[in-house]
Input
Amino acid sequence: MGLRSARGPILLSLMLSIFLIAIDSTILSTAVPTITRELGGFDQFAWLFSVYMLAQAASVPVYGKLADTFGRRPIMFVGIGVFLAGSVLCALAGGMTWLIVFRAIQGIGAGAIMPTSLTIAGDIYTVRERATAQGYIATVWAVASVAGPTLGGVFAQFISWRWIFWVNIPIGLFALWLLWRTYHESFERRRRRIDYAGSVLLTGALVLLVLGVLEGGSAWGWLSWPSAAVFGIGILALVAFVVVEQRAEDPVLPMRLLRRPIVVSSSLASLLVGVVMIGLVSFVPSFLEGSADAVPIVSGLAVATLTLGWPITGALAGRFYLRIGFRATALIGASVTVVGAALVAVFSLAPSVPLTALGCFVVGLGLGLVANPTLIAAQSSVEQHERGVVSGTNSLTRSIGSALGVAVFGAIANAIIAAGGGESPTTVQQGSTAVFGGVIVAAAVLVVACVGIPRVPIADEPRRA
Output
């Protein structure tokens, strides 16, 4: 089970691949104020996160289906390659609009990396072995939680924010090389048709809904005809997607899987994890820099406590669910998340870096007991040929949660800042407090979602390479 075992090199390649996503989720947030000062467009900064999550969300189900069709290995190669191409373009971006566009390309690559990595882990490790493998993967988030915000702050404050993207290149190339050398899967390819209609409808629906939330009350009024048109067409596209998926020969998101309680409850939990996480990761740095005069490095370390708490309990989650089950473990985590979110909101009334960091750390402890157990429970309920779709669905819902979360929270913050006369320490504090209140609501709903997780027996299945 260690890195020196027969499967160790494969595990290391997965850890490096996941590290790309883990560090990308923390390194950018600390540099947002610096980026907006250089490129302008403070009111657009939410797009840096939402467009990435949106592209990731739209591509995840496609990659999940492709991984079940052509194998995991080629999809990982494509994902890492696209992610690195997007990183280079982001580093060369000359304006906020271009940076947002190139972040979308990064998101398309990320849509393959995370779910396919988790699917490979599900293929080569049994349920009980995954409890140990979690500890190794959790170290990736632990390292990224410290390295990401620290590097982001250093680059933004002393060198250039563009190095936030350049640093991905050597990591990604090494991950590609190691994966090529070590992972040779035994996979029975199945001839399947790609559900292009479903993919286009899902992408269009998500784009329109996020666009409506982000631009409503800013580019146009909430009750205006553009708002009605965007939301109306988005909802119609979502309904059409459901209809098409029910009739598709090989749907990108099989509706029959969504009739399984474990898949529905775990996906809902994943969506809410995305909402809670993005609400803190994307707004805590701007809150501390705008209201407490924190420098980028300090604000980065404050939000890093969230991603530091996550792997601590993530490494222990396997022991928990092996003893008390998936649902009980997730419920404990969700309850801790509510406590942490409440601490962040209360502490925001009197801005303090240490106290905000403490609240983020508690939230991270809670999320670590929710994310992996719910995913593994869902993976354990399906056969190998469906595991890619289930892993993809889990990542899809988390990305949707993150995309919609940052859109809703961004709209709330921008509305409060605009009503207060523009950006100032007072309005930034007020807008951030409102966002953190929304995080509490999402964490409370997460508890309800975890209550609905059915009992899943823990049984080992044959190991597959």
In short: The CA atoms of residues 153 and 297 lie 4 Å apart. DSSP finds 18 helices and no strands in the chain. The longest helix spans residues 384-419.
